């Protein structure tokens, strides 16, 4: 497996989870790491966005030393040593922006209420290196040149793509969730789309990430990936019925 494929696999694992362990350098116990649970999103380019309060210990720690790590793991397996996990190391910087807010609040709409309490701000973790463990014997370091990607022109079309799916392809999204995630819902809403997959929200506010089989470089490739997933889902479910 190439380094590019490993990077995609690691990102897909991260996108499928919604929180991780943020480790910061403790100011009250110098020399010791301080761990806390934080929700996060990964941008199209590979940076990590967190939304944290000025009064939180981890924020105080970041202001004193911006070197952090975020550990994300898949809790689905009973044997934790068999689970996939990713540790992202990098430098955390204040990053309030409309783009970060839009991306974050799509996945965590409840966090919009925090804008008026406790001085919450967005921070971006600029990735220095990634450790990916996909299970026994599958252990890799991923350097930034394989993790980070450039901004692409199709990113400006994302809102239109999401609106199109939500307005015209409800049946397709329901099929995709049933087949790929074993999740049934009378109402499905696409809330994000990336080069490696898409997030969907059910009527009960369950958020599910469905990965693409390969990396998509543009809007046409994403459309083809969604059509392929729909056709595969329809055929598989018809056979099962």
From TrEMBL:
All residue ranges annotated as the DUF2470 domain in the record: 160-227
Pfam family, one: CREG_beta-barrel
UniProt domain CREG-like beta-barrel: residue ranges: 6-147
Domain of life: Bacteria
InterPro entries on file: CREG_beta-barrel, DUF2470, Haem_oxidase_HugZ-like_sf, Split_barrel_FMN-bd
Signal peptide: none
Gene3D superfamilies to which the protein is assigned, alphabetical: Electron Transport, Fmn-binding Protein, Chain A (2.30.110.10), PNP-oxidase-like (3.20.180.10)
PANTHER family linked to this entry: CELLULAR REPRESSOR OF E1A-STIMULATED GENES, ISOFORM A (PTHR13343:SF17), CREG1 PROTEIN (PTHR13343)
Protein name: DUF2470 domain-containing protein
Source organism per UniProt: Alteromonas gilva
